[in-house]
Amino acid sequence: MIPSQSFPSDKYPKSYNEAYSQQPDKPEEACGVFGIYAPGEKVAKLTYFGLFALQHRGQESAGIATFEGNKVHLHKDMGLVSQVFNEENLTQMPGKMGVGHTRYSTTGSSHIANAQPAVVETRLGPLALAHNGNLVNAPELREDLLRRNCNFLTTTDSELIALAIGEEVNRGKEWLEAAISSFHRCTGAFSLVIGTPAGLMGVRDPNGIRPLVIGTIDGNPQRYVLASETCALDIIGAEYLRDVEPGELVWINNAGMASFDWSKKPERKLCVFEMIYFSRPDSVVHDETLYSYRLRLGHQLAQESSVEADIVIAVPDSGVPAAIGFSRSSGIPYGEGLIKNRYVGRTFIQPTQSMRESGIRMKLNPLKDVLGGKRVVLIDDSIVRGTTSRKIITALRNAGAAEVHMRVSSPPVTHPCFYGIDTDNQSQLIAATKSVSEIAQQIGVDSLAYLSWEGMMKATGVTSNSFCSACFTGNYPIPLSETLKRSKLMLEEVGV
Asked: For 282-305, b where at least 16 C-beta lie within 10 A, e where not — what string?
């Protein structure tokens, strides 16, 4: 079984990969997936716009595969969606079905060979797979596939899922049976969009840790869209129908959409960080935009940790809704104190150490006339390592802020994620090794308070605990092997 297209791993110089390897001081986005079945539509271009709406979920690479009968047209490359695609290459991708992906690497290094969709050839024709999440049994699955003489071209767990399906097809199974058999071999978080010559699949793992939604174009029962978030439906004028349920497979072809429960459904465990930070504020979860949820986070935060101050400001852009909610609840005026350079993305040109030390500010710049002499409440959605927070607070003080009080609209991040969010090892998470007062001293604030776990859950408006919040609690809903635990957790957490 050989993927239909391969890429050299050395297309980009080492310095490019080094630039990507610098660990940012935020949980990095999961990936974005998109699929469309729409005979008569320009599916490549619609997939492009869908990925454009999901760009926040991954900025390293982007790819699209379209199906024209038994033939797949594939284009993927490193870079943003707008850099990878243009009118010319989209025009060369005909078909009635498309699969798209924006990637941030959580497994596998950052080079073009690992860009998605992952495409493999089978006896029934090509398969194109886009994956959001992480398998926790990837080493075991890889060994199993090696024993079955499968060949690997990438280092991703996504390719393992595609190869597993292809291997089952080559053993004589049809698409649905092969896919379901393969999913039972996978443990972890996975929301998948899978294109085949016979139809389009949308799949979620039994806990539904990563999101996946279904939409229709013009209400047409033969034109369906699958996407990580509803904002990708909005951009192409599709109407939100419903979520793909945890443990569900939807199968879309000329006959319409069919649903299969491929797994028993344990308690739902959508990643709560999707609510707090990852998903766009205009995306809909539980029948409301996440903007509304994040307003409530700010309201709850103000109820739990009031402070006397003159102005509430946000770390843009993700802290803005919570800051507005905090302002409304506390009565402290909201204002803009930090201006974001919205054209700063990942860049080949990195500042030198001397530039960093001299105060180069590529992303955020404080407004001195707004902050001068003021007691400032700074709202952010999370603190991971604390390095960025310290720099921002220093910048606020240099701009003349008399006091800086930081409020965080989520609990302390004390544990790493194993399900598709790229976080540091536990020893690098500041809240795993320091108390709140010690963190406040290290980042240089006059006071620091986090939202409580109970307050975060209360703000969801959901009565049952249907969210994964392992990064705050250490309660992982999908069991982890001892080897995997040792790779990220501190010894006392592993029980050593």
From this structure: ebbbeeebbbbbbbbbbbbbbeeb
Domains of the chain, with CATH numbers? 14-266 (3.60.20.10), 289-494 (3.40.50.2020)
| DSSP conformational letter for 410 | S
Using the structure block, give the residue that is written with the tokens 């990220």: 488
User: Which residue has tokens 């001299």?
Assistant: 358
Q: How far apart are CA 143 and CA 249, in angstroms?
A: 26
Cβ contact 285:213 at 8 Å: no
DSSP states of 265-328: --S--EEHHIIIIIS-TTSEETTEEHHHHHHHHHHHHHHHS----SEEEE-TTTTHHHHHHHHH
Closest CA to 161 of 203, 207, 111, 197: 203
Q: Are 195 and 162 in contact (CB under 8 A)?
A: no
Tokens of residue 107, six digits: 């497994």
Percent of the chain scoring above 90 in pLDDT: 79
What is the spatial distance between Cα 190 and Cα 262, in angstroms, rounded to a whole number?
13
Model confidence over 151-205: pLDDT tens digits?
888 889 999 999 999 999 999 999 999 999 999 999 999 999 999 999 999 999 9
- Amino acid, res. 150: C
Q: Is 336 helix (H, G, I), strand (E, B) or coil?
A: coil
Torsion of the alpha carbons at 236, 239, 243 and 249, rounded to the nearest 10: -70
Active-site hit among 31, 150, 186, 471 = 31
In sign, the C-alpha dihedral spanning 75, 100, 102, 46 is positive
- Closest by alpha carbon to 133, among 214, 228, 225? 228
Question: Is residue 471 flagged as an active site residue?
Answer: no
Distance of alpha carbon 281 from alpha carbon 209, whole angstroms: 19
Q: Which two tokens stand for residue 183?
A: 């999913």
Q: What is the pTM of this model?
A: 0.90
User: Which residue from 135, 164, 161, 136 is spatially nearest to 148, judged by alpha carbons?
Assistant: 164
How far apart are alpha carbons 201 and 176 in whole angstroms?
Answer: 9
Q: 400, exposed or middle or buried, with CB in 10 Å at 0-12, 13-18, 19+?
A: middle
Say what the pLDDT of residue 493 is. Answer: 74
| β partners of residue 28 | 422
CA distances from 24 to 27, 115, 349 (A): 8, 21, 16
Tens digits of per-residue pLDDT, 253-276? Answer: 999 999 999 998 777 999 999 999
Omega before 77 within 30 of 0, i.e. cis: no
